[in-house]
Amino acid sequence: MRHAIRARHYSLRTEEAYVGWIRRYILFHNKRHPSEMGAAEINAFVTHLAVDGPVGASTQTQALSALLFLYRHVLHQDVPDLDTVIRAKRPGRLPTVLTRAEVRRVVGGMEGTPRLVATLLYGTGMRLLEGLRLRVKDLEFGNNRIVVRDTKGGEDRVVPFPAVVRAAMPTWLARVKRLHERDLADGFGTVHLPDAIATKFPGAEREWGWQYVFPGEHRSRDPRGKESPTDPQPERRHHLHETVIQRALRRAVLDAGISRRVSCHTFRHSFATHPLEEGYDIRTIQELLGHRDVKTTMIYTHVLNRGGRGVQSPADRLWSRSSPRSPLTQLPSQPNYLAGVLPPERQLVSGEELPDDLVDEDVDE
């Protein structure tokens, strides 16, 4: 299973998730071999997750994807009656978007590395792991941009380099470089390199440009690394763990008094929404976010439809401060549908208010 996943260059997190679902699938069916099972057993497992779990639709879809991967690419078997496999429908939910004042309060309540990372996420629209996986060489000070390489879809993209982050980066990178030099002096100082770069360029894993911008506090074993046959999992300096940022953000949100559910991905939603409010083209936002289809980016246009597609609530018009009595007024574009019912002296001209003797009448009676 792991070999099939790595041959297709799936991420380590996908590998861990798929292996975990396959293990749970086998244990659920009393350790039967997957080759002896089919669509009925898959449906039973997926139903168990939804009913007894309970898990969300996205988690249920991930489990199904792991099972289909197992049958197609590992066992090389076609799942019979694939049309009968239960597929969860994800609900269409609008993303949480913070106002600029809320972003200022949340980021202002953070300190140190989490504050710098949070500012970077809001200023560039990157995902949390995309920001933590940045290498030193990806920061282009001369071009005033950041190249995001280790993306969700595997395609590189370019995002702006926020001035506030750029001003703080020289001091931060000097601190990271001292840490790297100390690791080199201790006989370490290597990082994980993607694909076969370590083979093509020997020694590149110790170069300054390949080091993480946000390294972890401690060194750890690389589950996919291999420096020598006697050291299959070398000790390296990985990037900062995402839980460090998530916990700091959670505390800042509570201190700011925000009751909505806010995560690190909320900064990405806010980054996409605020430029749209300022009139930026949606295609530009699509490129900055790295969406393949503009339909994915279109969800952020919901903020432009204020008050339900721009319609003013009738309650706001009824109790408007500008008119204490809130008299009924015919809109200029509204046709007079009562022309054939009321006599001419009782009809309204465009923009004219109802007379006092008609305001309190009950039409239903």
Characterize the structure shown:
This protein has helices at residues 2-7, 12-28, 39-52, 57-74, 100-108, 112-124, 128-132, 163-185, 197-200, 242-256, 264-277, 282-289, 294-297, 306-309, 314-318, 356-359, and strands at 139-140, 145-148, 157-160, 220-221, 235-236. By secondary structure, it is mostly helical. The chain has two domains: 2-84, Tyrosine recombinase, N-terminal domain (DNA polymerase, domain 1, Orthogonal Bundle), CATH 1.10.150; 94-309, hpI Integrase, Chain A, CATH 1.10.443. The strands form two sheets. Strands 1-2-3 form a three-stranded antiparallel beta sheet. The chain has a two-stranded antiparallel ribbon with strand order 4-5. Helix 2 packs across helix 4 (57-74), helix 3 (39-52) packs antiparallel against helix 4 and helix 6 (112-124) crosses helix 10. It is globular. The termini are far apart.
